[in-house]
Design brief:
There is one protein chain. With 317 residues, the protein is mainly α. It folds into three domains: 102 residues, Multidrug-efflux Transporter Regulator, Chain: A, Domain 2 (Orthogonal Bundle); 73 residues, Methyltransferase, Methionine Synthase (B12-binding Domains), Chain A, domain 1 (Orthogonal Bundle); 113 residues, Rossmann fold (3-Layer(aba) Sandwich), CATH 3.40.50. 50% of the residues lie in helices and 6% in strands. The chain has a four-stranded parallel β-sheet with strand order 2-1-3-4, with helices on both faces. The longest helix is centred in the middle third of the chain and has 23 residues. The chain is elongated and about 75 Å long.
Length: 317
């Protein structure tokens, strides 16, 4: 940790809560930053963060906020307390109890997303997502885009959480509600990235293949291109081949990128059909895990990352 401590924004991202939540806990329950130097804002120490993590665990388990705050204040935690609590027991004292006197269940693995060595902001986003805390999801996602830029925010914060949700859904069939909430909020955040003026210059066309419903990656690409000063048109999910060909004839784009998340939606014919158009694009690209690189025609580019796709399309126009 920085020797000067953590700002409220950094702690909010780490915990996956809104800054307003931290202010409330500070003002109502005296669970605020303790590090202070004259002339500077107060900063959170690791012990302060441990208190807040414990407060978060208790309230997530259904303990009323006031009772949870009293528990935290009466027993100042160490930096390992949150980890001990997560294993099911707070060292040195009994569990808080519910109104019937029964032991509160600790937050288990079902409340966490498997993200491996993810960034603190990604872990905070994952926690907020599992709580269906749309306000905090929005704040963390917007902060990441603002401070890191679209490409870095996507790679280090947004995509790891979306991938973890997808992995859990693939194993259990659950988290549909979490995926819907996060996707909607992230889509809104990406859509709020300022766009260059169109001026009839939309030389890049982005679309999902026929029956492909995962459109968030091309929304991220559109936002990344906007930050690079490139104007594009986005047709979104499930674009039939006939509609794609009509859009190419109508707009004459210099570059077209088709996204496929699933091999079932990655029909190469959707790409080759465009090469026969009178207004065929100078650059044709296929992106997403649905495509088999070996099956693509030699003239079709296959960017392997968001950064590579942004650079490829920027160069094309």
């Amino acid at each position: 940790m920085n020797v000067d401590g953590l700002t409220a924004g950094a702690v909010a991202r780490r915990l996956g809560v809104a800054v307003t939540t931290l202010r409330t806990w500070h003002q109502r329950y005296d669970l605020g930053p303790s590090a202070h130097e004259p002339g500077k804002h107060r900063r959170y120490t690791e012990e302060d963060v441990a208190r807040l993590e414990l407060m978060q665990r208790l309230t997530a388990d259904g303990v009323p906020s006031g009772e949870a705050a009293r528990w935290v204040r009466e027993r100042p935690p160490t930096v390992t307390d949150a980890r001990i609590w997560n294993r099911g027991r707070i060292a040195g004292g009994p569990h808080p109890t519910d109104r019937n006197g029964s032991r509160m269940a600790a937050a288990g693995g079902g409340q966490n997303l498997p993200m491996g060595p993810a960034s603190p902001a990604a872990r905070g986003l994952g926690r907020a997502a599992m709580r269906l805390d749309g306000e905090s999801v929005r704040q963390i996602a917007a902060d990441a885009v603002r401070h890191l830029g679209v490409v870095r925010a996507w790679d280090s914060v947004l995509r790891p959480v979306l991938a973890a949700i997808g992995e859990r859904h693939g194993r259990t069939g659950g988290l549909v509600e979490v995926e819907h909430l996060v996707s909607a909020v992230v889509s809104d955040v990406l859509g709020s990235v300022p766009r260059p003026p169109m001026n009839g210059r939309g030389r890049v066309l982005l679309a999902c293949t026929d029956e492909e419903q995962h459109s968030l990656p091309i929304e991220a690409l559109a936002a990344g291109l906007a930050q690079a000063g490139v104007v594009c048109r986005v047709l979104g999910a499930r674009v039939p081949p006939s509609a794609l060909r009509a859009a190419v004839r109508r707009t004459g784009p210099a570059a077209v990128l088709l996204w496929s998340h699933n091999p079932r939606t990655a029909a190469v014919a959707q790409l080759t059909a465009l090469s026969g158009e009178r207004t065929r694009p100078m650059l044709l690209a296929a992106a997403g895990p649905g495509w088999r690189i070996d099956d693509l025609p030699p003239a079709v580019a296959a960017p392997r990352s968001l950064a590579e796709a942004v650079e490829l399309l920027r160069s094309a126009v």
